[in-house]
Amino acid sequence: MEIATFIKIARATAQAHRLPEELVCAVADHESGGWNPWAVRYEAEFERKYVPVNPAKQPTEHYARAFSYGLMQIMGQTARELGFIGAYLTELCDPGIGLEFGCRKLRRCIDAHPGDTRAALLAYNGGGNPKYPDLVLALVPKYAASVDVNKQAGAK
């Protein structure tokens, strides 16, 4: 697939979740290093903090939950919490699936921080990088001539 196809899927998924298309595109662009659907990253600190130890689970599933996947780099654990039931977390590298769960997460973050897109972006990224909102917001103009992401996200 070409980047234009990924952008089209991102825009449609954003609309389905009442999210600013330009913001979703900017997050995907930044998170995946330029629209790479195969982007995968292990997050050791995330594993220690958020992935519950469950001896009944296969070790692969445990460790896979500490990886981020796909265009929006959604964490495996987060995807499971948001309802992902696929057999393999690597399915999140499928653009449609990864964008769906990335948008679910972003919608929750925006709802938790009404009117404050910067805070919502910090929450999306886990809050560890205070420059993250600036990095994402700098990409928004690439996907729209002008946009008020707070207004489009449903802020009052």
Give a verbal description of the structure.
The structure is a single chain. The chain is mainly alpha-helical and 156 residues long. The chain has one domain (3-152): Lysozyme (Orthogonal Bundle), CATH 1.10.530.10. The protein is 51% helix and 5% strand. It has 9 helices and 3 strands; from the N terminus they run H-H-E-H-H-E-E-H-H-H-H-H. The protein has helices at residues 3-16, 21-31, 44-50, 59-64, 76-81, 95-112, 117-124, 132-137, 149-152; strands spanning 40-42, 67-69, 74-75. A 3-stranded antiparallel beta sheet has the order 1-2-3. The N and C termini lie far apart (37 Å).
Average of the residue pLDDT scores: 89
Which sheet architecture does the biggest sheet show?
A: 3 strands, antiparallel
Report how far apart the termini are. 37 Å
Count of the separate structural domains: 1
Work out the helicity level: 40-55%
Query: SS-based structural class?
Result: mainly alpha
In CATH, the architecture is Orthogonal Bundle
Strand order of the largest sheet: 1-2-3
Q: How much of the polypeptide forms β-strand, as a percent range?
A: 5-15%
CATH fold field value: Lysozyme
Write down how many β-strands occur, each being a DSSP E stretch of 2 or more residues.
Answer: 3
Shape, principal axes of CA atoms: globular
Query: What is the N-to-C succession of helices and strands?
Result: HHEHHEEHHHHH
From the alpha carbons, calculate the radius of gyration and give it in angstroms: 15 Å
